[in-house]
Design goal:
Among the domains are: about 160 residues, no CATH class; about 80 residues, Immunoglobulin-like (Sandwich), CATH 2.60.40. It is built from ten helices and 44 strands. Strand 8 and strand 9 form a beta hairpin. Keywords: Glycosidase, Hydrolase. This is Beta-galactosidase. Belongs to the glycosyl hydrolase 2 family. It comes from Neonectria ditissima.
Length: about 775
């Protein structure tokens, strides 16, 4: 079908409110349609009566008497005798409005409409999909009042277009073709990530602000002093996304200052509550305005923040949300992980902007702000319920099993730790990740839902060797380096299904752990690891790996502040077993005392329930619970031999291979990140195999090394590089598009199981990876 040909779906009826089976509207001749610009929201009329829109309603979905239209292609809207529609982008939903005749005669007369035209948009309110209007969801206001014309349909269309061409227009959202796509790229739609963003702090009254916002590049930090007027941003962008990604609809590079805008309506039933605006992550500096009032400035690209906007919102009408973002990336010494303005092999395209979810929730004035829960293998539960007012209010915590049976309930005081015991709980193990539901109340008015798993992380001697212990037993930690990059979304996965697919692949092979490499994921990632039974080694995102620059005292203090936030915001997730402070010396000061001495002690105080890997790779000064060696093609895991710049194995700490493997295999261009900078660096991969037979042979030899070092020496865990290819790196189990799986599944499952058997021969827990392999992909 020619792209100019309209195929707008309508609901023909004899009365404006009747619903019938959808049909297709009449089309103007194709040669005449070519004359009409599709860059505007044109209107044209077909019929024998004049209609005006008398009332705009914004009901939730499902209310009878309202006619809705789905525009299936970016085409012309229509006005017919019984229907009025409007132009939308591909896949967007449009409202068909109520009408009444104002004149009835034999002439074909068209009344230009001067109202903004609302577009139906899906959002989440209290977990339900509803339709919420907003300014960004409207067509332009026509610049002239009601003008009637006695003309034929084509003349009317052209006349309407001539007037509309003077009105402001926005570049509509559309997924930009990335250098490589995935099977999920074009399924994202305009209602992304509908799940509740914080599974451990859920209230019933919440509303997602994810979807289509407007966006414009800015010039410098000074622009924040001159916010744009409402409705003036000229491009549409998908939130959440990285602006450098195809999913954003922008795919712009080298833009470091920007504006975002959307509108939202606060449900009237929230009027006597606090209205909280939540940002899960914005990279990097965000300044937030509500209805023209500057509310906060937040710094940091990996932590969430909440703003109480109760005093600034209007209930039952539209509110304006404006966000200014500045992302210096590696121009500054800030926590950024592997992002860089100049990608090359192991450093990748950056992520700027609102890359995680944005949402509203309703809560009492004194409400729960954070929930710290640690449930130990002996049944003891330690809880701190943080409150907004710090008023020492009464709290109650109730524990339920998955069948809804109440197991225990305990009262306490807000902002103070208290403990209680659950008798004989089922423990959380990788092969049986049992979780329990929690209900937490503050006073009479606030209630949140959460969950936890009973398990204990510790360090101890097993047959004379220092080991990582889970529930008192040596469990060999075996998993992959997981960087969390996507070719279509960069830092932001296309959806939850895609994100969890990677984790299910690891379980299918029998891995029981994942190292989240210098990136912090959305909370839904850690929930999935809790549910699947994947232990998580969580890295702190590093400062730039630039040996020519060292952090100043202020930059080091900021790194420490953001490390504390990462630990505090994630320490209730059962699957996280250890924190990594520095990776291979990146951003690590070479001073005496070394910076990790202070940071290790800081994290130990914040979270005594987990272990700490102070330095992974090298520049190790003996702090923390692990001796962690990186030696890719020849792993050295708890061995009496080592290679510089690594240090000799320390028997008082746990010996692990924090990174090893990394063997590669090139694929066709169909599965490669098709950017010259990346293609040119493929040969820098640690080792490249000519075919998959060779690849699987080399993997088997590396598994043998780990197995033998576990049997003979003190190897307690290993991290294979890596889950997926990333840009110029071609050493993933999966290609970057997740379409090619390199390993021989049965061979790898057997090799991985042999490592667990070796660990069991040295006093480890006797467990089989077969339960883990039962996951469906």
């Amino acid at each position: 079908m020619n792209r100019y040909l309209p195929r707008t779906r309508i609901h023909p009826s004899s009365t404006p409110h009747a619903h019938r089976q959808p049909g297709y509207c009449p089309a103007l001749p194709e040669d005449e349609l070519r004359k009409l610009s599709m860059m505007h929201r044109e209107l044209y009329a077909l019929g024998s009566a004049v209609y005006e829109i008398t009332e705009w309603k914004f009901p939730y979905a499902g209310i009878s008497g309202d006619i809705w239209d789905i525009v299936e292609s970016g085409v012309m809207p229509v006005i017919t005798e019984n229907n009025v529609g409007l132009l939308c982008e591909l896949g967007r939903q449009c409202r068909i409005a109520d009408m009444k005749p104002v004149q009835n005669d034999q002439q074909v007369v068209y009344l230009l409409i001067t109202h903004r035209v609302p577009i139906k948009r899906r959002r989440r309110v209290s977990g339900q999909s509803v339709d919420i209007p907003g300014r960004n969801e409207t067509g332009p206001v026509l610049p002239y009042p009601d003008i009637a014309m006695n003309v034929n349909p084509l003349a009317k269309a052209l006349a309407a277009l001539a007037i509309l061409s003077t009105a402001a227009s926005q570049t509509p959202y559309k997924v930009q073709k990335p250098p490589l796509d995935t099977d999920w790229t074009y399924e994202v739609g305009t209602d992304p990530w509908p799940e509740h963003p914080r599974p451990q702090l859920c209230r019933d009254a919440w509303q997602s602000l994810n979807g289509i916002w407007t966006w414009r590049a800015a010039d410098s930090d000074d622009d924040v002093d001159n916010p744009p007027d409402p409705g003036k941003l000229d491009s549409e962008v998908l939130v959440p996304s990285c602006i450098e990604s195809g999913l954003s609809g922008l795919q712009v590079l080298d833009v470091h200052h920007m504006w975002y805008e959307t509108t939202f309506e606060v449900p009237s039933e929230w009027k006597n509550q606090s209205v909280l605006l939540n940002f899960e992550s914005v990279d990097y500096k965000a300044v937030v305005f509500i209805n023209g009032v500057e509310k906060t400035t937040h710094i940091g690209g990996y932590d969430r923040f909440t703003i109480d906007i109760t005093e600034d919102v209007k209930f039952g009408s539209s509110n304006d949300l404006l966000v200014f973002v500045h992302d210096p990336t590696d121009e500054d010494m800030i926590p950024i992980g592997k992002q860089t303005r100049n990608p090359s092999h192991i450093f990748y395209r950056p992520c700027s902007g609102i890359w995680q979810q944005v949402w509203l929730e309703s809560a009492p004035s004194d409400h729960i702000t954070q929930l710290d829960v640690a449930a130990a293998s002996d049944g003891e539960v330690s809880v701190t319920v943080h409150s907004s007012k710090g008023s020492d209010g009464a709290v109650e915590v109730t524990v339920w099993n998955q069948n809804g049976t109440k197991l225990a309930s305990q009262s306490g005081t807000a902002d103070k730790e208290f403990t209680f015991t659950v008798d004989s709980p089922d423990l959380w193990w990788p092969e049986s990740p049992i979780l329990y539901n929690l209900t937490v109340k503050l006073g009479k008015d606030d209630e949140v839902h959460s969950y936890t798993g009973f398990r204990t992380i510790s360090k101890g001697k097993v047959e004379g060797v220092t080991r990582h212990l889970l529930n008192g037993e040596f469990v060999f930690q075996f998993g992959t380096l997981d960087q969390g990059f996507w070719p279509d979304g960069l830092y932001t996965p296309p959806n939850r299904e895609a994100m969890i697919y990677d984790l299910k692949v690891l379980k299918k092979f029998g891995f029981n752990m994942v190292r989240k490499h210098i990136k912090v994921e959305p909370d839904l990632f850690y929930q999935a690891c809790d549910q699947l039974g994947l232990m998580v080694i969580q890295d702190m995102p590093s400062m730039p790996a630039d040996g020519s620059r060292v952090p100043s005292s202020e930059q080091q203090a900021e790194f420490k502040r953001q490390l504390e936030l990462m630990v505090n915001q994630h320490k209730s997730y059962t699957s996280i077993t250890s924190w990594v402070l520095y990776n291979e010396g990146w951003g690590q000061l070479d001073t005496s005392p070394p910076p990790e001495e202070d940071l290790t002690e800081t994290v130990r105080k914040l979270d005594p329930s987990r272990l700490i890997n102070s330095v992974t790779g090298w520049r190790d000064h003996g702090f923390g619970d692990y001796h962690d060696n990186h030696n890719y093609a020849q792993p050295q895991c708890g061995t009496p031999f080592y290679s510089k710049p690594k240090t000799p194995y320390d028997p008082e700490r746990i010996g692990i291979a924090g990174e090893y493997g990394g063997i590669g295999h090139n694929v066709s261009i169909d599965h490669l990140w098709n950017v010259k900078q990346a293609i040119d660096t493929i040969e820098e991969t640690y080792e490249i195999n000519a075919d998959l037979k060779s690849y699987n042979y080399r993997a088997s030899t590396l598994f043998r090394d780990i197995r033998e070092q576990t049997e003979r020496f003190a190897c307690s865990g290993a991290v294979y590089t890596q889950t997926t290819d990333v840009e110029g790196e071609v050493n993933g189990l999966l290609t970057y598009d997740r379409r090619v799986l390199r390993p021989d599944l049965e061979q790898w499952q057997g090799d991985i199981q042999s490592v667990y058997v070796a660990a069991a021969s040295r006093g480890g827990k006797k467990s089989s990876s077969k339960k883990q392999q039962s996951v469906d992909l």
